[in-house]
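Predict fold of Carboxylic ester hydrolase; 465 aa.
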Amino acid sequence: MRDLTDRDLVVETSSGSVQGFLDRGVPNWRGVPYGRVEQRFRPPVPVTPVEQVDARRWGPVCWQLPIMTGKTLSAVFPDVAESEDCLNLNLWSPDPSPDARRPVLVWLHFGSRAYGSGSTPTIDVWHFAARHGAVIVTPNYRLGPWGWLYLGALDPDFKDSANLTILDQVMLLRWIRENVAGFGGDPDNVTVFGMSSGASDLGALLGAPAAKGLFHKAALYSGAQAPMAEEDAVQFAEEFLAAAGPLAATPADLVQLPNVGLRTIHRRLLRQSTARANGPVIVRYGPFVDGDVLPQAPLDSLEAGLMADVPLLVSNVAEEAGVWDCWNAVDHAYSHVLPDADQSVDHDEKIRVLSEIRWVGPARELLAAQHKGGGHGWAQKFDYAPSTNWQTALAYPAVAKRPVHGADVASLFLDPEGDVGTDDDRAVGALEQAALLALARDGHVPWAQWSPEQQTPHRIAAPSN
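Predicted 3D structure, encoded as tokens:
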């Protein structure tokens, strides 16, 4: 890497001149605006360029919400501002030379579409630029009701409130296409990857015609769930407004509420849903088939060949539903999902069945749809419990020792040449990252493609296993 001066870290963009800095020797720009939220519950608008953007500190993230009663997860730095006008990105590059044409990686974060950010403290993407020679982007976009509450059926004035976060992400990808060359990235080689809700967001983008041509490869980690039907999105909006009580009676009232009011409604809805289910419930924000942003189910669009030129890497962990042991919720989830099934089956079988229904089956359906549409895909099974698993930090040490939902994040973002973790941790991290980088660089990974005849996923595990 050549010696860089402050002048080298100023890049001209459609947002203005952005001034970066060196993060452990790697050029880094933070909080760069790629769009604006001009009005609540409305589509994003293009960023207003300014003369200079100080891109040396994190930008605002979307307001953070609890996903279960009594469980508020911390996924932002304590000094970072929360705001619904949060359309900004962070970017690392080995060298901001327009001639570099390096592969670009765009990370869509996890968090049940209710929390998380592009600057989550437990996620360090630095090594993708420092060790792998890629340009990496971590964006912020709207979450919770700010991005996913569809009010058009309740008030026609809000007919454009559908799938706002998808529109945020499309605007992000357009900004990358227009500007990433100035940071040393190749606008014709953009790989989007995400985990859990971030991967499901990516699954929706695969069915969005507006996103076609804006990214060229996709890697989905533990997230391929289908979007809601429109009637489900409408029902959710009705329930959200009903939970407002005296705070709001109409969608227009919701626009006028301070952000703390929307968070209060979310918590009320969470408590009410938990009481009705008599057990843990996660309020489900997410995309729906609206006929415009998503003209039809993404699987149908894939079968029709919409993204046939986008190779897919689709990964699941070995024990996805084991994450519900964090909240002693496996039995409750099994009885809720399969009320007529034999409830006496053993715990491991319940986890296997729930994993199949919630994660593994949808991943297989995604690969099958892509295959039918003429595209290519690869299946991966992550079968390792990293000692650096972020679940440990959430005070669930027993679950942290199992390959449950989210365990692979610790390997995906572990510096393979650093001194964190065990030898096995770094070896598995190197394997998982190698598959992603092979996809990003070459458009394929080093094992057999998925097909109806070859469905066995490639296993990522410790070398000794």
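The mean pLDDT is 94.
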